[in-house]
Amino acid sequence: MTRTTDVLVVGGGSTGCGIARDVAMRGVDVTLVEKGNLTHGTTGRMHGLLHSGGRYAVSDQASARECVEENFVLRDIATHCVEETGGLFVKRPEDTEAYFEEKLEGCRACDIPAEVLSAAEAREREPYLATDIDRAIAVPDAAIDPFRLCVANAAAAENYGGEVVTHAEVTDVLVEAGEVVGVEVRHGDGPRKASTDVGSTERITADHVVNATGAWAGQLGAMAGVDIEVRPSKGVMTVMNTRQVDTVVNRCQPKGDADIVVPHETACILGTTDEEVDDPEDYPEERWEVDLMVEELAELVPILREARTLRSFWGVRPLYEPPGTGTEDPTDITRDFFLLDHADRDGLPGMTSIVGGKLTTYRMMAEDIVDHVCGKLGVRAGCRTADEPLPGSEDVGDLHERMDEFGLRSPVSRRSAQRLGSRTETVLDTPGPNPTVCNCEAVTRAEVRDAIDDAGRDLNAVRLRTRAAMGTCQGGFCCHRLAAELEPDFTAEEARASLDELYQERWKGQRHALWGEQLSQAMLNHMLHATTMNRDGDPARLDGDVAFGEFDDGTGTPASEAAGESTVADGGPGAGTTGEGDGWR
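The structure corresponding to this sequence follows.
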């Protein structure tokens, strides 16, 4: 089976989706392929910070300027994805005055709005800050939902005639007569699999291939016979059960681990570490890293010591080091992005890679590479992505006024409107009852049904679109309700399989936080799933399959040997499937 497109984008993270949108808006035929769900890689495993540039104002001012520029662009075009939290760089007594002044001057040199606050003024904004802090710098940091952002970009690409195919893993880059002419993909089970059989392969030919796979760029490059010097760097993030702060809180010190708290929706995300790894999909996830987040950041926000840790997850940064740089410490590698024209660089026309960068600058990165590709194809259309709102952010205006206009005064309706933006009336105006399916995140049936229409039976994809099962119970009370919404469009077997996949994905992030109240929550989820779905006596055991309670994560290691701390740690509340990549919440 073969199909043809003008531009083929490999990678469904923020940059790949942004490229697909930009290409389609210029009137060029584009297809995007992603081996998992959208945000399967780095984008779905970041802390949700929309950078003001303040974090790089001393060490990497070029990146800082890009960040502050794109920060304000995204506030305009992705209104329903951004929460304008503001940010603080907080100085503790042991932090140096010299670095504080250097940070302040760096922000001003990069045109980042910066205001010095006294300790009292900082605590007035964030009452849970430590009482012994000295002062702080206020900057325009914000929180952004990467899942909502990617889906909106993908939807925009499709609105302009593009095609987005998920669960399509590239198995080979097609090179003919010394030129890249396309890729071969293998289709998995999931939404948007292009009406092909699971496990089948397909050739997709294109005039130009864009490698937007981030930390995996080197692996795709190797398929084409070129070397791309990506240096993946892992970082842990830990999700707390409530918003201990409503402002992004940064430690005002040079580079270091555990120096940021990002409020997001109903939770706070603590981050992070920076450790180079060889393989972006195979690296250790260790309990001490989680402990480090809480211990260090409690110096800024002491109440974190008393909070419940919901889950942890690890992401891999797609750092790029140009040849000959020789940087030993990954924290010293620039966060800037690079366009690699393989025709000029490697004598291999037909493919360009985009590497480095960060989510905040995804739109700028996309514009740069699409300008380049359109130049190759002789397309003169210019970029409009900084001026045209994403689907869901058109004519939002004052969201609170619009919610009042729709009579949305309850907390549930208000949360729904904040997620849906300009699509609020279309989605929520249903003829029948619209009960709450996920109580923790206040997700209604109408939102779930809307996501199912787009994502099919993949409840993990529904989760990314709605936040259902991302709250404090981590799906314990809503997974079954979500699966029930799959009827009558899918069979009972399909619904059960999707439920198990979602439950297991939720479990993966909790394995490193099994103490205190969270241990009790995990046991409750275990018992709810085991008793209501009979997973503790699954007939699959008779067939030799991995069954509930047998293994910790599908690796084949008995959990009783791997953990040994409790009955929950000995099994986990999943059905024994490994599920898809561990999400950030």
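The first helix runs from residue 14 to 25.
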